[in-house]
Design a protein that fits this description.
By secondary structure, the chain is mainly alpha-helical. α4 packs antiparallel against α11 and α8 packs antiparallel against α10. It starts with a helix and ends in a 19-residue tail after the last helix.
Length: about 300
């Protein structure tokens, strides 16, 4: 693996984790956001300097991600991106004061095991494993149902959250829904990275805007902005972001392998390691608690003796 591709992935991790934590910190000081009022959501976000700082960090992470996809196979890139969860948990604990349960910490440890399995499967993988573009029909056949599923899941989570006497959600359904949107976005970023070059810029622009990639980025960017920020305001970043990242990574590896034709390793051991790492990540996602435990009731005040 080219060293600067790995360095770009680690830089993207730092930028993404920092951006999410800054946004979460900013959201705590904003009025409640509602997906039913997307224009108002965007207006309130743009009025917060701290949120703008977080969004700039995420934009810089996006630029680093383009460099990663030009040099590393999808599975390798996603394996490195998952490692950023450790930094995210550390920042959310130190900066936001969020406490993770033992079960959640064990889940993150399992994600790191999945990362190790995926990275071990990359040994001996050359530059020829990095695909550049995907057939538009195949990409759209994957992207459109996935976007619809993400939006429907988010809507269902919203309806359940509005029911009375329901335990507060930990954010897993929201994270899965946003992760599907960002998974499609990740495929689009991969496609854009394969088309970008400094030679014959007018021809490059023609190929880029003649492809579905920029339009998928526009749709996922607009929907993801409103949905992710609303969910991040309601739930802990230490739950939303790991779930979203896990879903995005698994989706990108599985669907990207199909869309971009980046074949699994021919060696049985390496193939087993890659598939095993994906299976562990999915198992972690399914094992995460769906609800936060109810807040402990405050003890009754002692009656004064008269």
């Amino acid at each position: 693996m080219p060293w600067w591709g790995v360095a770009s992935a680690l830089l993207a991790n730092v930028l993404y984790s920092t951006g999410f934590v800054l946004e979460k910190r900013a959201l705590a000081g904003l009025p409640a956001l509602s997906t039913r009022q997307p224009v108002r959501v965007v207006g309130r976000l743009l009025s917060s300097p701290l949120w703008l700082a977080g969004s700039l960090a995420l934009a810089a992470g996006f630029a680093a991600q383009l460099a990663v996809y030009r040099t590393l196979p999808l599975a390798a890139a996603q394996g490195l991106f998952v490692s950023g969860l450790v930094l995210l948990l550390l920042l959310s604990s130190v900066v936001l004061g969020e406490r993770t349960s033992g079960r959640e910490r064990r889940s993150i440890l399992a994600v790191l095991v999945a990362l190790a399995l995926v990275v071990a499967s990359l040994r001996g993988e050359g530059a020829g494993a990095v695909a550049r573009t995907a057939p538009p029909a195949t990409l759209l056949l994957i992207a459109v149902p996935s976007l619809a599923a993400g939006l429907l899941l988010y809507r269902s989570a919203e309806r359940r959250a509005r029911r009375r006497h329901r335990l507060p959600t930990a954010g897993v359904p929201y994270g899965v829904a946003v992760g599907l949107l960002y998974g499609v976005s990740s495929l689009a970023i991969k496609g854009v990275s394969g088309l970008l070059t400094t030679r014959d810029i007018p021809a490059v622009a023609g190929r880029l805007f003649g492809s579905p990639y920029p339009y998928l980025l526009l749709v996922t960017g607009a929907a993801g902005l409103v949905l992710s920020q609303t969910a991040l305001q309601r739930c802990r970043a230490s739950v939303i972001v790991p779930v979203c990242t896990t879903v995005t990574c698994v989706f990108t590896v599985v669907c990207g392998t199909v869309a971009f034709g980046e074949a699994l390793p021919a060696d049985p051991l390496r193939r087993a390691l890659r598939l095993g790492g994906t299976a562990v990540a999915v198992a972690v996602l399914l094992a995460l608690p769906r609800h936060d435990p109810p807040a402990p009731a405050s003890p009754p005040e002692p009656r004064s003796c008269s």
